[in-house]
Design a protein that fits this description.
Elements: E1 2-7, H1 11-22, E2 27-30, H2 39-42, E3 46-47, H3 53-67, H4 71-88, E4 99-103, H5 106-121, E5 127-130, H6 131-137, E6 147-151, E7 155-156, H7 162-172, E8 176-178, E9 183-189, E10 192-197, E11 200-209, H8 215-220, E12 229-238, E13 248-251, E14 257-260, E15 266-269, E16 275-276, E17 282-283, H9 286-299, E18 308-318, E19 325-328, E20 335-339, H10 344-359
Parallel strand pairs: 1-2, 1-11, 2-8, 4-13, 11-20
Antiparallel strand pairs: 3-7, 4-6, 5-6, 9-10, 10-11, 12-15, 12-18, 13-14, 14-15, 16-17, 19-20
Helix pairs in contact: 1-7, 1-10, 3-5, 4-10
Length: 375
């Protein structure tokens, strides 16, 4: 019997478990594979705050205004990322050098300006840049770019050890981690919940569903429905280079994220689609690889001499609204959902802190109205 069972051993589940255990709550994490096996470790490590350009351009300002309150969640989460290294006693390679969105046409710049205006209305002080200002801030950017916008809040962290660091922190406060343990059923009873797993039955007073791509299946076990989608995407990494790229870089022309790690490697991503084989396993798409690299070279021409040493595919979790689902399920008291779509790596610490507080019946210290994210 535990006070709380957390289903899912990615960044969402491990951060939730850490904050619960640090608060003195008896918690068990149940993970069907190994910790951080899927999106939490296979993502590119970007720490996002600004409204992503692609959905803004395709879904429009009506969508963006509905989504904009989420920006505060990500801003607060990056503050927790910055504190996590000292709290966990682990180097997570967290940096906050800002995010740079670049444009090469006037029509793109008009959209960048509209997006920036909306972000500023919601407290994100994004700065518009002319061509000369862009070159002054980031001389590595192609001179063909006519301007852009800079969000100082953004940055990066190393996803390879982040969830494991939160898990180790949770264990140091008494949490138990069960790996290779699949959840097959969740039933409510007078005492709380019975969780049927591949390693037997576990009882708990409360349950946190932080199962990522499996969150919809787990929610259905208590009669709840949440929108969960999964998309195969791919990323690449170069050989180590001399310091070149000083920001998290995006393109308004096509999907792109660029960042240089502490070791000098450059991670090239942006959400280009991978494929699935007949067993639903992710595979790299050569067409997407070529497209992604073409955009990267268009933005940072100096990358032309760099060698790609690895390209990998992963599943990213999303939904149509891009809005997180965080809170207690009304029809199943004691059952909480922690699902942050698309940018779950960024939002993991804040969402974990929020859920840890809600589970204990407290107002979350991350100060905003969490009812807007209720399941």
């Amino acid at each position: 019997m535990a006070d709380v069972i957390v289903i899912g051993g990615g960044i969402a589940g491990c951060a939730t478990a850490f904050y619960l255990a640090a608060d003195g709550v008896d918690v068990i994490v149940v993970e069907q594979y190994e910790l951080s096996t899927l999106a939490s470790a296979a993502n590119a490590g970007s720490l996002h705050v600004q409204i992503q350009f692609e959905p803004f351009a395709t879904l429009g300002e009506t969508w963006a205004r509905e989504y904009a309150p989420t920006l505060r969640l990500y801003a607060e989460s990056i503050e927790l990322w910055k504190k996590a290294e000292s709290v966990l006693g682990t180097d997570l390679e967290v940096s906050q050098n800002g995010g740079l969105l670049v444009a090469k046409t006037e029509s793109e710049m008009r959209l960048v300006e509209a997006k920036t205006k909306l972000e500023r209305a919601y407290g994100v002080e994004t700065e518009l840049l002319s061509a000369s200002e862009l070159q002054a801030k980031a001389p590595y950017i192609s001179e063909h770019m006519i301007g852009g916008a800079f969000c100082p809040l953004e940055g990066k962290a190393n996803p390879l050890n982040a969830a494991a660091a939160f898990a180790a922190g949770a264990e140091s406060h008494g949490a138990k981690i069960m790996q290779d343990c699949e959840v097959n059923g969740v039933q409510r009873d007078d005492a709380g919940f019975r969780i049927e797993t591949s390693k037997g039955t576990i009882k708990a007073s409360r349950v946190v569903n932080a199962a990522g791509v499996e969150a919809g299946r787990v929610a259905a076990m208590v009669g709840a429905e949440i929108e969960v989608q999964s998309f195969p995407i791919q990323m690449s990494v170069t050989e180590p280079l001399q310091p070149l790229i000083g920001h998290l870089v995006y393109s308004a022309s096509q999907m792109l994220t660029l960042k240089q790690t502490r070791s000098g490697t450059v991670i090239i991503g942006g959400g280009w689609p991978a494929t699935l084989d007949r067993h639903r396993r992710t595979q790299v798409s050569g067409k997407s690889l070529l497209g992604n690299l073409r955009v990267a070279l268009e933005v940072v021409p100096e990358l032309a001499s760099a060698s790609i040493v690895r390209t990998w595919a992963a599943q990213v979790n999303g939904n149509k609204s891009w809005r997180p689902i965080i809170g207690e399920v009304g029809r199943a008291p004691g059952f909480f959902v922690n699902y942050v779509p698309w940018m779950g790596f960024t939002g993991g610490p804040a969402a974990g802190r929020i859920i840890a507080s809600l589970v204990q019946g407290h107002e979350p210290p991350v100060g905003f109205d969490v009812s807007q994210f209720a399941p």
